[in-house]
Amino acid sequence: SNSTAIVINEINYNAADDQETGDWVELYNTSGSNLDLSDWIMKDDDDTHSFVFPSETVIEANGFLIITRDEADFLAAFPDVETTVGDFDFGLSGNGDAVRLYDADEVLVDEVYYLSEDPWPTSPNGEGFTLELLAPELDNSLPESWAPINANGSPNRENVPVGIVEIGNTYFELSSYPNPFDNQINLNLQLEESAQVSIVLYDQNGKVVKYLQQGYLNAGEHVLVYDSAQWTSGIYYAKV
Fold first, then answer.
1. Which residues pair with 20 in a beta bridge?
2. What's the predicted TM-score (pTM) here?
3. Cα separation of 203 and 129, whole Å?
C-alpha cells in the first residue's frame, strides 16, 4: 500500500555468505521531482527499531535511495552506488519481517511485510538474491509482486534482469525493453558464442504462453522484436 510517490522497491534481508553487504533497502521515486526525505523514518516490524534519515536527504526524480545497515560493507560490494543513507542499527530477519516507511510527520508512507517462505520468493533468504519488486506500480504488499531477479540484487537501478548467465560453456546476456511493455517487446540477447537457443515465455502462473525463439543463433548481439498487442496484461517470464 502506498500513499506517496516513494515505493519500497527492493529488500536485501539475508545476503549470501560470499556477498557480505549487510542488510539494505532500496526506495524508488516514481515522480518526476526531487523529493526531500529529511527526517523520514524506517522501521522493521518492531516499533522500537527505527532509523531517522539524516537532514538534507534527497531522492532524485525517478531515482533511487539505498538505506544501509553497514554502508562500508555495502559500498565495498557496490562501489558505484552514490545514493546511500545509513546506518540503521537493527537487522531484517530471515524468518519474515517488515520494512515500514514513515514521513517526517510520522505518517505511514509504505510498508511491506515479507516472509522467507512460500508464497514469497525463498531464494532471497541467503541464496544470493534480493526481493525485487517486479514493477513500481504493483501492490508491493503482495508476494506475487516480488521476485528474485538479479544475483546479488540491483541496487540503484531498475529491477530488470541483467547479468551473465552460464549454461554449459555459453555465456549470454538478456535484457528486455520497454518495461513495462504494451504493443511491442524487444529482447536484446548477446551471445558469446554461437548456440542453439530456445526462449519460452511463461505467464505468472507458470503456463507456457508462446515459444519466442527456437533455433540456432550466431555469436553477437540479437534484438528480437515481438508484437505483444494481443497478450493479456500481466507479468511474464522469459526462460532462455
1. none
2. 0.69
3. 21
